[in-house]
Amino acid sequence: MTDQQMSDVGLVGLAVMGQNLVLNMADHGYHVSAYNRTTSKMTAFVDRVESEEPSKERVHGFDTLEEFVASIKRPRKIILLVQAGRGTDATIDGLLPHLEEGDIVIDGGNAHWLDTIRREKEMREKGLHFMGSGVSGGELGARFGPSLMPGGSEQAWESLKPIWESIAAKVDPDTGKPLEDYAAGRPVTEGIPCTTYIGTDGAGHYVKMVHNGIEYIDMQLICESYFLMKELLGMRPDEIAAVFEKWNAGVLDSYLIEITADILAQKDPRDGSKFLVDQVLDTAGQKGTGKWTSISALDLGVTANAMAEAVFARYLSALKEERQAASGILRGPAVTFTGDREAFLESIRQALYSSKICAYAQGFALMEEAQKEYDWKLDFGMIAQVWRGGCIIRARFLQKITEAFNQDPTLANLLLDPYFTDALHEGQSAWRSVVATAAQNGISVPAFMSALSYFDGYRSAVLPANLLQAQRDYFGAHTYERVDEERGRFFHTDWPVAGRPESDV
Ligand code: NBP
């Protein structure tokens, strides 16, 4: 094979994501070698490409890993889009005998960042490069422009960069709005690509995981807004769809709000008199990245309560039968709404926006702590920019986060950026009334409530932890610091202190 006949890049794993990423790369002029463990899936894919795709001469299928690897230009760039975990390790083991020094393996799956750190080290010791790249945007993103979050050596990134920048989603340089052409099925070539070098080893996969954690809370907040409109205001799905559509024209403009409006307006294909959303069982599944984000927050000591609440909300939803039984036993207040509906809808919008700001503040605070733990140098303005297009959480509001971190890269918390401080000052009264009304009516809105608790806790110079630390010292001699001494000096008291009045016992 001459160099001209060889492929620019290879991809292993021809399920939903892999097939679409192959087509995306071929659309952008790259010759792509494709391999799948089960050969029949590779053959079916290549047959379909040959009959349907204009880029067919640039897609080449192989049924052995040896031929697949040999077909790619050196240093080889091989993308893995296989099931995360054992699938990735098995694929790497299969590739290793055929790779040569300097070759680059890029894992585009949803790997745990600690696995990526381990794999990068093992491959580096063998003279190979390993990158862990978050890929967000699902099937459509992979096909026409995902958000890509690569981590690994800078040398490997320089090789991968032209491909990643050409296939990534693009945003308008002036407005930051995504330049999507999904409907027309055309690759987008202009604009700022939604990818950037994130950092060494597992940095890309960590940032992708936090993206997913934010996705969980973003979705939960939208669901709580819907639930209030449905349960408290008694609105029909199509009426709620119209509200989300209106909100999508303002600061809440985002992919998730847009698809929510679409979903709510959808009639049931089985029975056109019903709305499909009402026929969907209220139990949510998950693949674990929201849980990983929350576990990491707990491990690193970061308050990401709203993100964790979104995971717990999915767990609670899964207890369908138990909840049904409990609903006949545990009583709550009767749901009544007597106020101004339009004003309350506006309050829900404010509660959603304020809670969303807190959720993103938690996600960025988590990444801030993680970079210290794992010795990464994350550029938060760039991360927000990479999320503006292609990915599931793409939103107009991310432009404001980019601006906030560009103005002050050492910003301690997003809540302290003047734009977001103003937004919270403006929204908090409505937010409080929504949370209070939900509580009075017995409507579960855990994400709204926990985000508000975070806001109130973060802005409190004084919290009740003085009593808590005294309790710890009482039963466990854990010591405490004093308000009238410098920080870092610790004291212990033999509780109860002698001389306590009898009446206090
Ligand atoms: P899946 O996660 O369903 O994985 C299916 C692919 O993994 C098939 O190609 C399968 O080969 C291969 N595979 C498995 Br399973 N075990 C293997 C093994 N032991 N050795 C080699 N190959 C193995 O596919 P997907 O939904 O396209 O996702 C691919 C990756 O992208 C995953 O890591 C996922 O988390 C991530 N991701 C997915 C999305 C999404 O929206 N779906 C979004 C972002 C990221 P076979 O055909 O022989 O069984």
Protein model, in words:
By secondary structure, the protein is an alpha/beta fold. The protein has 20 helices and 9 strands. The strands form 2 sheets. Strands 3-2-1-4-5-6-7 form a 7-stranded mixed β-sheet, with helices on both faces. The protein has a two-stranded antiparallel sheet with strand order 8-9. β1, α1 (16-27) and β2 form a beta-alpha-beta unit. α8 (203-231) packs across α12 and α8 packs antiparallel against α15. It is globular, with a radius of gyration of 26 Å. The structure holds nicotinamide 8-bromo-adenine dinucleotide phosphate. Residues 13-18, 36-38, 41, 81-84, 86-87, 90-91, 108-110, 135-136, 138 line the site of nicotinamide 8-bromo-adenine dinucleotide phosphate.
Main sheet properties: 7 strands, mixed
The count of strands amounts to 9
Helix content: 40-55%
Assembly type of the chains comes to single chain
Number of helices: 20
* Low-pLDDT runs: none
* Overall shape: globular
Structural class: alpha/beta
Would you tell me the overall average pLDDT? 95
Measured by DSSP, the beta-strand proportion falls in 5-15%
Distance between the termini: 89 Å
Task: Give a short synopsis of this structure.
The chain has helices at residues 16-27, 39-52, 65-70, 86-95, 113-125, 138-144, 154-167, 203-231, 237-247, 255-265, 276-279, 289-300, 305-318, 320-327, 341-374, 380-386, 397-407, 418-441, 446-458, 465-476, and strands spanning 9-12, 32-35, 59-61, 77-80, 104-107, 129-136, 147-151, 170-171, 192-193. It is α/β, with parallel strands linked by helices and 505 residues long. The mean pLDDT is 95.
